[in-house]
């Protein structure tokens, strides 16, 4: 069983990796697109609502017209006129004071389901029979005084819907005309999804009869936040508009509220020239502005006549309680804690300013389509990118989505960028996981390749070290080559730029009198040059020891034989010479090499340059020879271009001038001292830079004939 599970897991892993993770990401995108197209608030309502709240916070609505004025029964008014509830006569005075400024409508965001307890008849009922009781009973009631004031002004009352039989609630209300247009519906049918309340709590029937309209103030809180407000509700079987809508109807003088509905619910509500697109339940999103204290005036200022005579003219006035402990404070979508009446005022303002927020039913399909297109693009593109490029691209795409959401919000459309971005994030996460897995696998592969390369390099380094030891061992050692020799002194140095190199030197006695010496430079570097260097050295020595007649014949024959053993088409520059140790006669042949230097006393003389091409360039070439007569104490210095062309970190070469300056005055020094001085000066010039070429030196001093 465990083995079978491991096989299944391996198959699932192979399936996830197939197509660079594209099939898995595409399969994940299908249910995510369906979730975005989910009706109502979608599959992730908290995320969507939080985004819409963020839009409101970032782009609050700008107040343009200010058509609503809230008359607040605040702390100042309560201190002046006493605690709430006031006598209805006081409320009538407030309505008369507001009506005197000729507002378009006056809304009372108050519920008055019971008779005024301070009314004369209520006081009379608590007295013993007598003249005082009879006199109080004969006076007009406070409720009648309020009703009279309401008949003189365009007053709209508030009514609250209840799902249960609350004290004082009724199942019948006085209603004003509501015209319903609903295709295919039976006569008297209500639109689907509209909030239904079996009962409602309103004001006294006396007051309802005196009012110009009634509006619902019920709103469902979404986790304590007011984001949407219903413009319509049903009490029993009667459609009742919301307070904001009814105030607009009274203010515009319209005879009815028009409701356009269909089988899917309410589509739009119209009052006069205003037409508002709604959700299926008749609710609208409230477009909030920043808190506006100028929206409020104190009831005390109004009743004391402190306002300008036209402060309320042609405005919609809403009377509401804002005093401590009396106001029904609500949290709006911006997070502002304000009296509930502020919601009605802001809703009316947004209608007047043409700044309604809309989320059409087709928006969810637009979001699903947007997601599908972007997800398809990501599924195609991300697997082609490296992980470090895919992450910024995904973040930039999320930023563009939120920017588009803000732009649409400014235009009054609610686009769920968070839902689209969240769904895309899951698709990206699937692709990122595949990219990360591919990167991990690639890194492990690189580590394995690096490990193999290091092992191979270590093996090669060992082989090269062995080759270096063999190469260096093939070179003669000046200190032990000529024991007891006093006629001449010689020293040589070879330092390859790599483990092995192509420079060479050699020296040996042809007979008791004649010393043969050679210094050369094979073209190229590394192992091929070093192998050819060994061949060149061996062949040159072999030809020289055959007893060839003269220096020219030795070089001529060595050139021919090297050409036959040269599959890589390399060539060799060299200086070869024979010194007669008894007479100091020097016979020299230069095959394409730098001119040797003759140190005589304090002078440095550069001998003639090359008389012929490098070896292995022309097969049958007769190399001419140069003849010199050395004086006792003269020093001959041969070097490869690894000395004069040595470069420091800045690319500056060592050069012939510096070498000549160093050798000047060293004619009396031993060959070992000259070699050591040149090597140390070249090293000081190069510093920490990588050696650019092999370095070889050979210094010979003729002391004179043996005594």
Automatic annotation (TrEMBL):
Q: Where is the PPM-type phosphatase domain?
A: 485-702
Instruction: Tell me a Gene Ontology molecular-function term this record carries.
Output: phosphatase activity
Residues crossing the lipid bilayer are 365-383, 390-411, 417-440
InterPro entries given in the database record: Bact_Sigma-Reg (IPR052016), CHASE2 (IPR007890), PPM-type-like_dom_sf (IPR036457), PPM-type_phosphatase-like_dom (IPR001932)
Q: Which Pfam families match?
A: CHASE2 (PF05226), SpoIIE (PF07228)
Q: Which UniProt keywords apply?
A: Hydrolase, Membrane, Transmembrane, Transmembrane helix
Task: Tell me where in this chain the CHASE2 domain is found.
Answer: 44-381
Question: Known PANTHER family for this protein?
Answer: STAGE II SPORULATION PROTEIN E, STAGE II SPORULATION PROTEIN E-RELATED
Q: What is this protein called?
A: CHASE2 domain-containing protein
